[in-house]
């Protein structure tokens, strides 16, 4: 009998509807202002620390409405934004640098939906807003680092030219001073420096009866270093955001030393804040085996070596010469060691780093080579009330600290080349974070988050309301037209259109895609295209009725013969959407994604869905007339 579906087709439709409704449901619930807390450098928040956090907030009358501890850290919800901001300031002051606290918007999805991994889709900055970080770059640190690198360069050049000098050091107020025993060597050094090093000024002076050269960067050189540091920081921040998987972020320069970072719809803002603000890298040095035991026991530290703190809280003496650093590392991957089961990071070096590694390890088999973790932290100096202190020029006063820690110092067993492994890490999280930072590239200068807030929609509430209204008005007008023009069949098409919108939202939620205003435009276009398939079918049924066919035969022929036309039209549109996705930028890709999903879901609802409903209404019955 025609126009009768087998039971399994109805089962398929029912399953799709149930799953779609279930995973679209989390989008009905709103978001709560919240705070996410994570441990720094792989530190886990245990139950005692979690209870301590809640106790601190209760004591300061900023208790959260609810608190949850999971594998990622602690998540605190608050009744309003004022309490959220108050709690953030309290926690940053009380917890110190061992924890990262960040503002967040936490979905108010019921627990039973969370257990099914049902989560709302992400909304872009233009629809939902997100997290806003205003970062200030410590450009003085970039200049200081350049001057420190000049010290080693000057020593090498002077030795190559056999120019005798007493010392090369950095002055407290900036610049490098070179001390000599006689004027002849100073004159030769001055000629060499002015001839071979650009972007500097050289001044000869007498201090305490000894000849000196004062080497300073020129003002254009300082400006160039600051610009390069700002550019490299923006590139590194973008790379780190890409590693975090945030869709359509905003990374913009503001002024001559600040960067604005806006992250739409991020779920773990504490992780984002911790990763973005870290200025971390690795430095590889040799252990001073001849003097290590005496220096660790409290003896004198010889020149050319430096005493470091080890991961096991002991001390170790290293030769103060960096073999290679994070700048020579082109790739890094975190994994578990197959033998010990501990976390490791596998490093791949560039050609320069590989040649240095091969030469040094080949010459020092049996000695130890240390991996030094280096992190520069620049913290805002605050007054007793917690307000940032400003200098005479209105800039924020910061204290910069350089943290150096030897992660591991293994014995060199064989000559190494472009690949090696770092062991001795505390946790898998620390290995993953370290690999991420090395892949993304080190920041050229420390950054300080001087402002953090959750931001409202970027395009303004009026534009957002217009976007939502366009979907609602278009949907309602289509419903009225279809119901008036096609009667019962139009009502069935309206039902399919509503289901189609639910399925689009469900698929976006399952994929955890980010919906932006261009994506809304794709949904609006889908609304029109979804009923277009039904219009083709219904007009074909009308033609069959006018040709004298029976109602049942007209329904059957109308669906069958319109199918090829519908498929052809939708496939061509789908090809265009794929091209837009491959070659378009962020907003264009958002439009292409929603359009592609809408095309596929509309074909299901317009062809299989509506026919199933029509078969339930008219199938297997003797009818004389169709309400079409």
Walkthrough of the structure:
- It is a single chain.
- The protein has a 6-stranded mixed sheet with strand order 15-14-20-19-13-16. Strands 2-3-1-4 form a 4-stranded antiparallel sheet, sandwiched between helices.
- The chain contains 15 helices and 23 strands.
- The model has no long low-confidence stretch (mean pLDDT 81).
- The longest helix is centred in the last third of the chain and has 51 residues, at 461-511.
- Helix 5 (139-160) packs across helix 7 (219-244).
- It is elongated, with a radius of gyration of 33 Å.
- A hairpin with a 3-residue loop joins strand 11 and strand 12 (258-264).
- It is an alpha+beta fold and 628 residues long.
- The two termini are 22 Å apart.
- It folds into 4 domains: 7-25 and 459-618, Multidrug efflux transporter AcrB transmembrane domain (Multidrug efflux transporter AcrB transmembrane fold, Up-down Bundle), CATH 1.20.1640.10; 30-108, Alpha-Beta Plaits (2-Layer Sandwich), CATH 3.30.70; 140-222, Alpha-Beta Plaits; 280-425, Gyrase A, domain 2 (2-Layer Sandwich), CATH 3.30.1360.
């Amino acid at each position: 009998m025609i126009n009768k579906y087998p039971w399994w087709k109805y089962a398929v439709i029912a399953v799709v509807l149930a799953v779609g409704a279930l995973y679209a449901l989390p989008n009905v619930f709103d978001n709560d202002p919240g705070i996410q807390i994570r441990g720094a450098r792989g530190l886990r928040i245990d139950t005692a620390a979690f209870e301590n956090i809640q106790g601190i907030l209760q004591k300061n009358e900023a208790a959260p409405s609810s608190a949850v501890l999971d594998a990622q850290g602690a998540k605190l919800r608050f009744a309003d934004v004022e309490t959220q901001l108050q709690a953030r300031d309290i926690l940053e002051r009380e917890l110190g640098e061992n924890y990262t606290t960040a503002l967040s918007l936490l979905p108010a999805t019921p627990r039973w939906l969370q257990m099914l991994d049902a989560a709302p889709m992400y909304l872009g900055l233009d629809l939902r807003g997100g997290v806003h970080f205003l970062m200030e770059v410590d450009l003085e640190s970039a200049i200081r680092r350049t001057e420190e690198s000049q010290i080693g360069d000057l020593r090498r050049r002077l030795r190559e030219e056999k120019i005798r000098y007493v010392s090369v050091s950095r002055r407290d107020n900036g610049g490098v001073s070179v001390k000599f025993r006689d004027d002849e060597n100073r004159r030769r050094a001055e000629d060499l420096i002015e001839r071979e090093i650009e972007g500097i000024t050289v001044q000869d002076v007498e201090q305490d009866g000894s000849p000196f050269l004062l080497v300073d960067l020129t003002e254009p050189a300082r400006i160039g270093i600051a610009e390069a540091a700002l550019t490299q920081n923006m590139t590194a921040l973008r790379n780190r955001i890409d590693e975090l998987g945030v869709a359509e972020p905003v990374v913009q320069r503001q002024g001559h030393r600040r960067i604005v970072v806006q992250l739409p719809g991020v779920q773990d803002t504490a992780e984002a804040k911790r990763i973005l603000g870290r200025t971390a890298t690795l430095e590889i040095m040799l252990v001073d085996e001849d003097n290590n035991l005496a220096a660790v026991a409290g003896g004198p530290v010889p020149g050319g070596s430096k005493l470091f703190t080890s991961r096991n809280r002991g001390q170790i003496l290293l030769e103060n010469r960096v073999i290679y650093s994070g700048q020579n590392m082109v790739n890094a991957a975190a994994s578990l060691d197959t033998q010990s089961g501990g976390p490791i990071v596998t490093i791949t070096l560039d050609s320069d780093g590989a040649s240095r590694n091969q030469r040094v390890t080949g010459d020092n088999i049996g000695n130890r080579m240390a991996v030094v973790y280096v992190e520069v932290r620049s913290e805002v100096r605050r007054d007793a009330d917690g307000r940032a202190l400003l200098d005479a020029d209105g800039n924020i006063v910061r204290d910069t600290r350089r943290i150096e820690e030897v992660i591991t110092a293994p014995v060199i067993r064989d000559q190494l080349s472009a690949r090696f492994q770092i062991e001795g890490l505390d946790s898998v999280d620390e290995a993953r974070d370290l690999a991420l930072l090395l892949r993304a590239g080190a920041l050229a200068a420390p950054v300080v988050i001087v402002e953090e807030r959750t931001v409202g929609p970027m395009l303004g509430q009026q534009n957002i309301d217009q976007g939502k209204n366009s979907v609602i008005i278009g949907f309602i007008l289509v419903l009225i037209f279809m119901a008036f023009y096609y009667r019962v069949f139009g009502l069935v098409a309206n039902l399919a259109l509503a289901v189609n919108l639910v399925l689009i939202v469900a698929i976006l939620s399952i994929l955890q895609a980010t919906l932006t205003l261009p994506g809304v435009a794709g949904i609006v276009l889908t609304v029109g295209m979804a009923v277009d398939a039904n219009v083709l079918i219904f007009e074909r049924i009308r033609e069959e009725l006018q040709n004298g066919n029976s109602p049942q035969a007209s329904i059957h022929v109308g669906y069958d013969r319109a199918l090829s036309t519908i498929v052809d039209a939708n496939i061509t549109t789908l090809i265009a959407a794929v091209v837009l996705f491959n070659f378009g930028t962020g907003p264009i890709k958002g439009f292409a994604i929603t359009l592609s999903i809408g095309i596929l879901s509309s074909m299901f609802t317009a062809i299989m869905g509506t026919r199933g409903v029509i078969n339930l209404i008219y199938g297997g019955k003797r009818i004389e007339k169709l309400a079409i």
